[in-house]
Amino acid sequence: MKSGVLRFIRHKPAVCGLVLLLAVLLASALAGVVYPGDPFRIVGKPFQPPLGEYLLGTDMLGRDLAAGVLYGARTTLLVGVVATVIATAVGVTIGGLAGYFGGRLDNLLMRFTELFQTIPFFLFAILLVAVLGASIGSVIFAISVVSWPPMARLVRGEFMTMRNREFVQACVSMGMGHTRIILHHILPNTLSSIIVTGSLMVATAILIESGLSFLGLSDANTMSWGYIIGAGRTVLRTAWWICAAPGVAILLTVMAINLVGDGLNDALNPRLRSL
Amino acid sequence: MSAAGPMLRIEGLSVSLPALADRRHAVEDVSLQLSRNEILCVVGESGSGKSVMSRAVLGLFPSRHVQPTAGRILFEGEDLLQATEQRMRELRGNRIAMIFQEPMTALNPVMRIGAQIEEVLEVHHAGDLAARRARTLDMLAAVNLPEPQQILAAYPHQLSGGQRQRAMIAMALALEPDILIADEPTTALDVTTQAQILVLIRDIQRKKGMGVIFVTHDFGVVAEVADRIAVMQHGRLVEQGWADEVLNRPQADYTRSLLAAVPSLMPGPKRDFSGQPVVLGVKALSKSYRTGGNFFGGAARRVDALVEVSFGVRRGETVGIVGESGSGKSTAARCITRLIEADSGQIMVEGIDIAALGQRALRPVRKRMQMVFQDPYGSLNPRRTVGRLIAEGPIVHGVAPATARARALELLELVGLERRAADRFPHEFSGGQRQRIGLARALALEPDILVADEPVSALDVSVQAQVLRLLADIRSRLGLTVLFITHDLRVASQVCDSIVVMHKGRVVEYGPVADVYANPSHDYTRSLMAAVPGRKWSQGNEASNASMRTA
Questions:
Q1: Per-domain boundaries in chain A
Q2: Nearest CB to B364: which of A171, A175, A180?
Q3: Phi/psi zone of residue B515: left (φ > 0), alpha (ψ -120 to 50 degrees), beta?
């Protein structure tokens, strides 16, 4: 484990990503301190360019963009992380059971997974939010529902190979139960792949969330990056900064998460790298 | 033959290792010579540098950190270490060719065999298309491949292991090289196939007057093919000389210990179990696999892995199951331990038919029969300390954790490891040590029956000898009944009281080991016995030992 941390620290892009990610976290944590009050509050004249009275300018209603971006970070991270946790839990459970037990159960669970994979995931997410109504809960639910199948496939593959490894067979021949073998022996050995895929899944979840709010399918009472972009797109030519500020925030966050994910991959699966 | 004197001279060759490796040099100050028309066997255990040394002749180094630091490799007076990449390309394949251990990975899987051999000829501008095709067919015929026309159009996966190795040899010999480097060319093959390939290499070498560097870890193979022998240890040459000298009158201590570790073909003293009850009785065990069928039906291919296999093991006895790959010996072991489900048949463990038990009823019975696995790297969970690995089995069966941990420490001592080993992870141990840990884990449940599936096949010969001694010692101390699966008739003769010879899923012969070895009754057993490499040499040794004893 120690050597894993060391390998991660040596991976320069990953450390850059981690620093960026910590900055985003800090921003969302300090949003209430720096900009107390409601981010939807109108503070001044509309359409003020950046670096004037307000750091990032104001939007078409005169709301402070900087406050919007900071509060938006909260929503975005919350949605990304919670949706990923749910999707990972579902994916690991279904994939693990399918891979471990194989046979009929595997067949059944994988056909079920394919059912989800046949529908274009973004359209499916739009449909779900449209049906359930635009709230933060339904956005998280929609993202989880469209995100778990790849995780299930990955975990199934890992479990299938682990199932035939001799150390697992040794556990069986010692008379251990399935639960013990799955939780104590196979899962810890697949954890690194799950963590890596999960970290990259956060980035995808953020993109889906932004896309949904851009289309107006998000909680109208919650500030999010996608919402700001969606609101500002009509005035893109005259007030570019309204879309640019949250756009850059999404770009940097997703990039940071991807860099961290790559770093984790190298740190946790050192055998994949050549000398 | 033309020039007198050696064709290839390696002088003071040293090859460095990366800074973090456990020793400075892969090869250190090695000097060797190879003449025309001789086979030089380079023998050593894993990590002895024998592969790196032989590949250096072709200018092949495993990475840019492993490079020659001193010495010369003179091929007809030309130093190959100084040669340009262009010059090396001219020599490779053309004058110096190589065959590898695993023909499946050394052949390109998406190219037809014919195209791969023709490509070698094409690279070295040997003739036009028709001439190349004719030459390829000649070569395939020369390595005794049946129906060369069909082989020409086949992909590597469509051939058997032996056929692939023959195709590799055909490819290596296509341009009639002066030197052939063979890196463990028969290690991945079954013994009967190995015997054929060894004869083939010997024949072709004699016919073409080539010099062959034959790298191997197996002294049996060495006794079959070598004219001269070079023994390597830790990157250094410890002994070289004529085959007869090195095999029968070794000078270096290391060579002596290696030769002593080669298991004899003479069965050990006979033990009598006729009065003991049968604790493991296998009756008409059958298992078949279906492949190729799919969701929409389709024609499934049926492979019979086990056909009506029956035998019995008496208390305290060791029964060996021997056979080549695909004979069903491992399937039998896994069916008997219920790791895979047999289609039909009985497995009687002290009067209970465990084949009929459900998973839940089976669990308490499992501890009476424990398994030791082949792969010392794959059979231990890499994320658990050795102590926990050993103690876990008893804990699952209701032993108090503290008691189980104390017992684990005792077991570590029993298998010849230190108690401190309990806090370390499997990757910190060598292959032989891991196999000891695997044994300790199996013993932790205090089983009556131990099923060992090729437990020493992945180990070097000296380590193999140690593990076999340990197994014999523990067996007699604990009165264990052992089912021992192996492909190696030498190992079987040393540990088994009775053997079951399997071929294509069927038991072809079953009896006391001494009887089966002395008078094999089935044709297959006879061919298996005849194929054991170095058989004549071993028998010569035993005869001389016996005469020394009587004298």
A1: 2-272
A2: A175
A3: alpha
- Please give, one letter per residue, the 3-state secondary structure of B109-161: CCCCHHHHHHHHHHHCCCCCHHHHHHHHHHHHHHCCCCCHHHHHCCCHHHCCH
Which domains are seen in chain B, by residue range? Answer: 39-48+88-237 (3.40.50.300), 278-289+300-368+482-533 (3.40.50.300)
Q: Are the C-beta atoms of B287 and B349 separated by less than 8 Å?
A: no
A2-272: CATH number:
1.10.3720.10
CB pairs < 8 Å spanning A and B: 67
- Quote the pLDDT of residue A275: 35
pLDDT digits (tens, 9 = 90+) for B120-176: 888 887 778 888 888 899 888 888 888 888 888 888 888 888 888 888 888 888 888
Q: Note whether A173 contacts B: Cβ–Cβ < 8 A.
A: yes
The minimal CB distance from B339 to the residues A172, A176, A177 is found for A172
- To which residue do tokens 């078409």 refer? A60
Q: Are A174 and B370 in contact (CB under 8 A)?
A: yes
Residue pLDDT, tens place only, B274-284 = 888 999 999 99
Angstrom distance (rounded) from CA B155 to CA B112: 5
Q: Touching check for A26 and chain B: CB below 8 Å? A: no
Say which of A170, A185, A188 has its CB closest to residue B379: A170
A234-252: per-residue pLDDT in tens?
888 888 888 888 999 999 9
Question: How far lies A1's CA from each of A6, A7, A13, A192, A270, in Å?
Answer: 9, 10, 20, 11, 12
Decide if the complex's ipTM is over 0.95. no
Indicate whether B2 pLDDT > 60: no
Q: What is the pLDDT of residues B374-420, one digit of tens each?
A: 888 888 998 889 999 999 999 999 899 999 999 999 999 999 899 99
- Dig out the tokens for B298 from the structure: 């389709």
* Cβ proximity of A118 and A182 under 8 Å: no
Candidates B25, B34, B31, B29; CA nearest to B10 is: B31
Inter-residue contact B107 to B167 (CB < 8 Å): yes
Instruction: Answer whether B370 sits within 8 Å of A176, measured CB to CB.
Output: no
Strand partners, B318: B482
Given this model, what pLDDT does residue A2 score? 60
Q: What is the pLDDT of residue B293?
A: 54
